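About this split. The held-out portion is used to measure sequence recovery: a designer receives only the structure tokens and must propose an amino acid at every position. Recovery is the fraction of positions where the proposal matches the reference. Here is one held-out target exactly as it appears in the evaluation file.
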């Protein structure tokens, strides 16, 4: 396939030795992560030629994985204690997510109403998905050893993969919104 009549814009945040876009919203804002020469990762947004760098407070390593239609970014960062925490950042306000009882947490999607999808890791390195709408809801594929969410939206539901008891990885899509039963049961 050949794409015609397309404009390609190249960009790299200042000081970047590697740039990895992760998501783009309908307004054309790109969000992602870049690495500097000191081997640290930082988040960025790119809008109409303007690059804005971002690191959550206390971050030693930042990874942005999503941007909502309204421009809210989300992802995870590692703090000075080497703990991985999820975050959401909008309008100069950062909210940190540490799922109750988790050894690490990450955000994979920020939904239209500000609800959050992500993953949390329990002791024993078992991964679970989560949905947060003011209350934490753990999401686990029925009978799975572990469940990892990859993406989601309000209209279509969410997708990810799960590890079965025989250690085979399987993909799934849940065609209901995360807050609807039976998806959160």
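Reference sequence for scoring:
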């Amino acid at each position: 396939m050949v794409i015609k009549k397309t404009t390609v814009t190249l960009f790299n945040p200042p000081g970047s030795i590697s740039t990895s876009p992760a998501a783009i919203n309908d307004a054309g804002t790109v969000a992602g992560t870049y690495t500097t020469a000191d081997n640290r990762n930082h988040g960025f947004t790119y809008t109409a030629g303007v690059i804005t760098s971002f690191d959550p407070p206390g971050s030693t390593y930042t990874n942005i994985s999503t941007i909502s239609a309204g421009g809210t970014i989300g992802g995870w960062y590692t703090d000075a204690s080497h703990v991985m925490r999820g975050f959401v950042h909008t309008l100069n306000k950062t909210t940190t997510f540490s799922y109750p009882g988790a050894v690490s947490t990450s955000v994979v999607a920020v939904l239209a109403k500000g609800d959050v999808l992500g993953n949390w890791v329990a002791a024993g390195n078992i991964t679970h998905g989560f949905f947060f709408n003011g209350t934490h809801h753990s999401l686990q594929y029925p009978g799975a050893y572990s469940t990892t969410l990859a993406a989601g939206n309000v209209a279509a539901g969410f997708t990810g993969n799960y590890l079965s008891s025989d250690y085979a990885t399987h993909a799934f899509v849940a065609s209901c919104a995360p807050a609807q039963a039976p998806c959160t049961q």
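Annotator remark: The first strand starts at residue 16 and ends at 24.
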